[in-house]
Amino acid sequence: xxxxxxxxxxxxxxxxxxxxxxxxxxxxxxxxxxxxxxxxxxxxxxxxxxxxxxxxxxxxxxxxxxxxxxxxxxxxxxxxxxxxxxxxxxxxxxxxxxxxxxxxxxxxxxxxxxxxxxxxxxxxxxxxxxxxxxxxxxxxxxxxxxxxxxxxxxxxxxxxxxxxxxxxxxxxxxxxxxxxxxxxxxxxxxxxxxxxxxxxxxxxxxxxxxxxxxxxxxxxxxxxxx
Length: 226
Prior knowledge:
Blueprint: H1 2-36, H2 41-50, H3 54-65, H4 69-79, H5 83-89, H6 91-94, H7 98-106, H8 110-117, H9 122-154, H10 165-174, H11 181-197, H12 205-209, H13 215-219
Helix pairs in contact: 1-3, 1-9, 2-9, 3-4, 8-9
């Protein structure tokens, strides 16, 4: 029994370490793009420490640089609304004291929830939650600092292709989900709306309007269970 537990723990550490390296690389991309977009280095680093939400941070930097901070705030809140049910799902792994819940809520990200929910018992869930959350928080912020330094040294991050790193990563994560026809239809409809409205509307609004693709799900409710 103990041998099986040790094997499971080693597997968890290995998998979390691999995710940590990927997050480190994306964090570098964010830091470099942040300073290249005109944000001061201290603002980029503080955002990573205080917000710690990769997708929302990339979106905020792009929208602030485009002159639409309101859209950046709204889009960030909308994007991270999924953390409300996530928090309910992993509340037992975080703990009951207010200190643990305060810190634990800050390191709640998609990967933390995924690794936690995959564990078979409460003790394993707690270990997975705190190991994953702490590893990714440290990796993201160290990567972000190095990215800031890289961005300040290079200046033109587009020349290194760093501007494409995050979109490429998102596409890679989304590809498995697009095998489902309904999900693919919703994504394509949203993308079409965003592309068509981008030349016509202020920065940020096309991304928000892309949510209209979800209307396809309302038109075909019978397929939601698939």
